[in-house]
Write a structure and sequence with these properties.
Layout (H helix, E strand, L loop, with lengths): L2 H11 L8 H18 L15 H9 L3 H4 L2 H17 L3 H22 L3 H9 L2 H10 L3 H14 L6 H14 L6 H10 L6 H14 L1
Length: 212
C-alpha cells in the first residue's frame, strides 16, 4: 500500500476525514486544467482589444481619407498650366514645355485615381496638346505643331466645337503639305473608331510630311 493510501486508511480508522485517492486527485487536477484552458485566451491569439475610450478615435482614423484622396490633382494641374502659359508669354519656351508635360502627368495621375477608361483619359491628356501646339506655333515649328492639334481634335471629335474646326484648318494651312488635303485629314479623323493615341497621330502626320 502506498503512503497516500496508508494515510487515508489510518485516518479513517481514527475517525479522521479521509483524503482523496491519488486517482481522484489526478482526475480533479486534469479537470481544473481543462477549465483553465477553456477560460484562458489562445497563446497566439490575433484578437485586437480596443479600449472603450479609444473607439471613437479608431473609427475616425479608419474613416479618414488616405493621402492619395487628399491630393487635389485638378488644382495642381491648373497651377502647372498657369505657370506654363506665363513662361511661354515671357518667352521661356523650354520652361513652358516642361511645365505643360508636368500638367499632363498630373492629369494622368488624376485619371488613374478616378479609375477612368482610355477614352476619358486620352481626352483629358489631349487637352494639354492644344497648348503644346500653340507653343510650337510661336516657334514657327508648324509641322511639329500639327500632330498636337490633330490629337486634340481627334480626342474631342465626339463633342466637336467650332474652335476644333478653325484651329485644324489654320494649323493645316501652315504646314503647306503638297500631296495631302484638309479633306484627307478629315477622312482620317472620321475613320478612327477606337480612342486615338498621340503616337498613332504622329506616325500618320509623318507619312503626310514624307509624301510632301
Amino acid at each position: 500500500m502506498g503512503f497516500a493510501s496508508l494515510k487515508g486508511f489510518l485516518l479513517s480508522l481514527f475517525g479522521g476525514r479521509a483524503t482523496k485517492s491519488s486517482v481522484e486527485l489526478e482526475a480533479e487536477s486534469a479537470a481544473q486544467s481543462c477549465e483553465r484552458s477553456a477560460e484562458a485566451p489562445p497563446r497566439f491569439s490575433r484578437e485586437i482589444v480596443i479600449p472603450l475610450d479609444a473607439i471613437d478615435d479608431v473609427i475616425a482614423a479608419l474613416q479618414a481619407p488616405s493621402a492619395a484622396d487628399q491630393v487635389d490633382y485638378l488644382y495642381l494641374a491648373a497651377e502647372a498650366g498657369r505657370d506654363a502659359k506665363a513662361a511661354a508669354k515671357a518667352g521661356n519656351f523650354d520652361t513652358a514645355w516642361g511645365l505643360f508635360h508636368d500638367q499632363k502627368q498630373i492629369y494622368l495621375q488624376y485619371a488613374q485615381h478616378q479609375g477612368w477608361g482610355a477614352r476619358q483619359t486620352l481626352a483629358l491628356d489631349a487637352s494639354v496638346h492644344e497648348d503644346l501646339a500653340d507653343l510650337l506655333r510661336l516657334e514657327k515649328r508648324h509641322r511639329e505643331a500639327f500632330p498636337h492639334i490633330l490629337y486634340w481634335v481627334a480626342a474631342g471629335r465626339n463633342r466637336p466645337i467650332k474652335r476644333h474646326t478653325e484651329k485644324l484648318r489654320a494649323y493645316f494651312n501652315r504646314c503647306k503639305f503638297k500631296n495631302t488635303s484638309l479633306h484627307d485629314v478629315e477622312v482620317y479623323l472620321s475613320s478612327r473608331k477606337s480612342p486615338v493615341s498621340y503616337s498613332a497621330i504622329q506616325k500618320q502626320v509623318k507619312r503626310w510630311v514624307d509624301a510632301s
